[in-house]
Write a structure and sequence with these properties.
- This protein has 92 residues and is α+β, with helices and mostly antiparallel strands.
- The chain has helices at 21-29, 54-67, and strands at residues 5-14, 34-40, 46-52, 72-82, 89-91.
- It has one domain (5-91): 2-Layer Sandwich (Alpha-Beta Plaits), CATH 3.30.70.100.
- It has 2 helices and 5 strands.
- Strand 2 (34-40) and strand 3 form a beta hairpin.
- Helix 1 (21-29) runs antiparallel to helix 2.
- The termini are far apart.
């Protein structure tokens, strides 16, 4: 049986494109047991889709915020429990 994981959809706003945000997020992801992806959006925001144990996902998102805090103005987050859908963490 596949156990549900916490899935978070997070939008980062501010000066988040062209500053190495996706690469930094990929590096941070290596420090946590999370899967998913990061990508730039046409409206200037960065989208992070992450799943894993609740504590890992929460710590991962907090760590992105800390690493890039001079660039992030706003963070919007939605989450739900569901079956895992990702393998590894990538830039899209």
């Amino acid at each position: 049986m596949i156990h549900p994981v916490l899935h978070a959809t997070v939008y980062f706003s501010g000066h988040v494109q062209g500053v190495g945000f996706r690469y930094a997020t990929l590096q941070v992801a290596k420090e946590f047991e999370v899967a998913g992806y990061v990508r730039n959006l046409a409206d200037g925001r960065v989208l992070v889709e992450a799943e894993g144990a609740a504590g890992e996902v929460d710590a991962f998102i907090a760590a992105i915020g800390e690493r890039m805090h001079g660039h992030v103005r706003k963070l919007e987050r939605a989450q739900q429990n569901r079956s895992p859908q990702f393998q590894g963490f990538v830039i899209r």
